[in-house]
Each structure stands twice: as structure tokens, then as C-alpha cells.
Amino acid sequence: MPVSKPIQLTLSESKDPLHERLADAVEKLIASGKLGRGARLPTHRQISTSANVAIGTVTKAIDLLERRGVVRSETGRGTFVSLAPDVENAQIDLNFNVPLPVISEDEFRAAATLASARLGSVPNGGYPEPGGGSEQRVVIADWLATTRLTVDPGNVVITVGGQHAIHLAFADLVGRTQTIATEAATFSGAIAAAANLGLTIKAVDHDEQGMIPSSLKSALLETACKAIYLTPVCQNPFGFEMGMKRRQEIVEVCRRADAYIVEDDIYSIYGQASIRPFAEIAPERVYYVNGLSKSLTPLVRVGVLIPPSGQRGTVISRVRAELWGASPFDIEVARALTQADVLIKARDLLLTEAKVRVELTRRILKLPDVPMPQGAPHIWLPMAAAQAEKFARLALEKGVRVTPPDATAVGGEKAGGVRLCLMAPPQRASVERALHLLADLRDGPTAQVV
């Protein structure tokens, strides 16, 4: 195992908190190879001396690096560079939309231990209560309250992740509609869920805020469609946030057409507090979807569905028929992490890092503006539709995987651009390197072939 050696740390002059600048400086050393994989970091005191900062600042910086997945701490042995960090020639994945590693090994271990202790009180020999037990649903409702939505725990249906919640919502709508309306490009999981249930997806014209109300009205009339699906915060893949006025207009169109809304709020932590969820505006016709996969980790498969008033019974029947219920162990791990305030710490870290990465993207790719400057997990890089598939293929050849337009296309027409998932690489330096490669591909000597 490589041992620690003296290091020279130069902190940036930015206005970021001191511990974040220190973490960035250490991460740059790792990315440069001066601290190799498996290497033991210098002691806290050595780092403190090198950077001329307090020991407490070093502790916070190391904790941040561990959450990013850059280093790992071993009790009694020290802190080590992760064994599988991004390396110069490794492929950088900007295609899969996952959050940074924001849970430390110690936090996971403590949550799993507490969850194991609670399993002895699970009724029915371990078979879960479909939709979650009463105490578990209270915890989920408390968490949703931190994401702008106040709900009655009695209306909560705990699911096996957000994808399961979307499928349940679509399945509950099968008797009312054979068509789901959405934007011209949308979440591939929603497309798959609709296809699995024999539903048709109808593309609706959109602008920088989402569906255009007049276009939605026409689509509902033309197709007898009685349901729409949307992701109002950081729309997938376009990355915009729907404003309050537009939401109210969409609700009015749906009320007049007696159509239901499936609100996928999986990116709710990135939303503006002043903009209320559809589920609050029109609870009588909204299936509200959320989960932990984008705000904590996909390792804990816990999602939530809040069906419209009076529909919980039919949804619970579907849960029982499909898989009886979400894993009690996963739910208890999520409960333990929530009660330990890990979710709150994870949210703060993700929001801080997302803002930095969005600004990096805007600057390196020379974008005039971005839809969510306050921070977002992904962003849309626009270009002509005919060029986007080639760009995605050439980017992969250069070592950067992006989401091609056909992955999210609704109908035959592909959107003009590619999606960049900015939070997937644990290390910020990898994101920066990928963005420079993409900028060179778009603007460099080979740009004419794109």
C-alpha cells in the first residue's frame, strides 16, 4: 500500500467555503496522479500545515471528499485515495443520471445496523405491508415536507423506487386512457413503462418551460387522451423548470379535459421553493412520484407514489398483486438515514456541487445561459438533430459517454441535442476534462464532421 508523502496544496481564491476549496485542491492532486490510487493521504496535521488551515477545516474537507467518492477512511489506519478513481484514459460517463456518492461507509453501516435491529418488529414474519407501514409512511411524509410537499401519511404508497411508482401510476390510468401526453423528449423509463402497459405516448409541443398549454389542449382533444406525464423540475432531458403560472395553466387545461397528471418530481431537491408541486395545486387529479435515487442513492430502492384522492385503494391492490410491497430492510435503511439527517446533508452537498458543475458547463461549452443556474443534475447541449447522434458516437470514441437523442425521443422525431449528466462522475476534475473534450469535438478542427 503506497504511503503518505508531503504534498503542496494551493487553494483557489474563489468565494467558496474554505473546506470546499481545500477538498478541490486535494482532488486536483489526485486527478494529476501526484496522489495515486490506494495512496494514504498525509495526516490531518500535515494537510493543515501545508494548506495553512485549521484541523477542523481539514476534517470537513476529508468528509466532503469521502462523500464524493474520492477517498475512503479506514478506522485506525487513516484516509486513502479510492482504489478506482477516474484516470486519464478512463471513459467518463455523462450518460447515467446518478448522484455523487454522498453517504459515507460509516453512515451506511450505522443505518444498516439500525435497520437490522428494527426488522425484528416487522409483522407477518417479514412480509411487508403493501404501501408501507404507518411509521414508515410518516417518515416518508416528513421527508417530502422538506421537498416542498405536505402530504397526509395515510395517502403515501411506498414503492420500489421511482420507476415502480411511475409504472403503478400508468397502470392505474389504463382504464381511463390509452394515451399519455408528454414533451417531445422525456424520461426513457416512462417510455418503457407506457410500452409495457400497451399505452401510446403522444408528443406535445413545448418551449423553455415545458408543455405549451394550447398545444396540450389540442392534443387532448385530438386523441381523447386523459393523462399527461411531466417532470416539472429539471425536465428530463431538457433540464428546464416549469414556472408557477405555467403549472396553473396546465392544471386548468387538464381540469377542463378531465385529464390526470403524473408528476415525476424525482429532482425536487433542485426546485425553487416558491414554485409549488402539481400535487399541491390539484391533488384530486395528480399522481405524485418521488424517490431517493437522485437525492441520496439508487442503492436504497425506495420511492413514493401519492395517488389522487380516493385512488390509493386501487394502487395498493396493484402493489400487492405485483410484488406485495417494498423491501422492509430497504425502507428501514432509508428511515434510519432520514432520521440521522443524512438526507439533509446529502441535499446540501448535491445542491452546492450541482451549482458549481452547471457553471463549469456554461463556461467551458460557452453557453449563453442555462435553464437552472442554481444547479441541476443534467443539462441539454443543443445542436441540429441530424448532428446529435453523430456527436454522441464521436464523443464515445473520445472517451465521453453522453445520452443520445434517440434514448429519450417520443415518436419518430428526435430532439436536437444530447443530455449531459453532470453529477455522475464522482470527481469534479473528470467532469471538467469531459467538458473540454466535448467543446473540442463541437468547435475544434473536426467540428465539420459533427
Automatic annotation (TrEMBL):
SUPFAM superfamilies (UniProt xref): PLP-dependent transferases, Winged helix' DNA-binding domain
Gene3D superfamilies in the record:
Aspartate Aminotransferase, domain 1 (3.90.1150.10), Type I PLP-dependent aspartate aminotransferase-like (Major domain) (3.40.640.10), Winged helix-like DNA-binding domain superfamily/Winged helix DNA-binding domain (1.10.10.10)
Keyword terms of this UniProt record: DNA-binding, Pyridoxal phosphate, Transcription, Transcription regulation
Presence of the UniProt keyword Transcription in the record: yes
Q: Say which domain of life the source belongs to.
A: Bacteria
Give the matching InterPro entries. Answer: Aminotransferase_I/II_large, HTH_trans_reg/aminotransferase, PyrdxlP-dep_Trfase, PyrdxlP-dep_Trfase_major, PyrdxlP-dep_Trfase_small, Tscrpt_reg_HTH_GntR, WH-like_DNA-bd_sf, WH_DNA-bd_sf
Q: Which residues form the HTH gntR-type domain?
A: 16-84
Query: GO MF terms on file?
Result: DNA binding; DNA-binding transcription factor activity; pyridoxal phosphate binding
PANTHER family assigned: HTH-TYPE TRANSCRIPTIONAL REGULATORY PROTEIN GABR
Membership in a protein family? In the C-terminal section; belongs to the class-I pyridoxal-phosphate-dependent aminotransferase family.
Task: Quote the protein name from its UniProt record.
Answer: HTH gntR-type domain-containing protein
Q: What is the species of this protein?
A: Metarhizobium album
